[in-house]
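> forwarded from #structure-qc
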């Protein structure tokens, strides 16, 4: 039962992060969702787009992370960890992801403003010129969230496995 709780915790945490993250980025550049994504949700509402894409674009990251975490926390002879013990580490990962996204958004925005990075066709022809700077901010924020989430998630899996081994060493 704890393995299922760990999987659900990671999946729901990823979805919650995605929805909050997209609530911010949809307000920076709604075109990131209306033009830069397939027309899955036929709305221009930043709130609804963020809710829909926040779920659709993150569950598939949280589920495998949850599966790997469940294995790292529960399999084998080492002392097992439960979902409650992983809440704080997962929350820290989400905080790191948010910081990475914010920093990347600033960097992407500065680089776009200086003409160092720009959209390529077809997006450069579809996104209004006056919205391309905001689009780049969103693109950098989303890329940073995925990259830091995947790397951080793998680090969390390794940390979980190793923490279980340290408990054995401390007992011995």
């Amino acid at each position: 039962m704890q393995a299922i709780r760990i999987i659900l915790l990671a999946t729901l945490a990823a979805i919650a992060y995605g929805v909050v993250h997209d609530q911010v980025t949809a307000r920076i550049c709604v075109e990131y969702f209306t033009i830069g994504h397939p027309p899955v949700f036929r709305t221009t509402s930043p709130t609804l787009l963020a809710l829909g894409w926040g779920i659709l674009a993150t569950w598939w990251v949280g589920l495998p992370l949850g599966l790997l975490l469940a294995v790292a926390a529960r399999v084998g002879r080492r002392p097992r960890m439960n979902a409650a013990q992983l809440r704080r580490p997962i929350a820290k990962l989400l905080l790191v992801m948010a910081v990475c996204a914010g920093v990347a958004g600033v960097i992407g925005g500065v680089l776009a403003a200086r003409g160092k990075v720009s959209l390529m066709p077809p997006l450069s022809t579809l996104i209004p010129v006056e919205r391309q700077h905001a689009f780049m901010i969103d693109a950098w924020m989303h890329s940073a969230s995925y990259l830091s989430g995947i790397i951080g998630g793998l680090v969390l899996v390794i940390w979980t496995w190793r923490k279980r081994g340290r408990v054995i060493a401390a007992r011995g």
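QC bot note: The chain has one domain: 2-171. The chain has seven helices and no strands.
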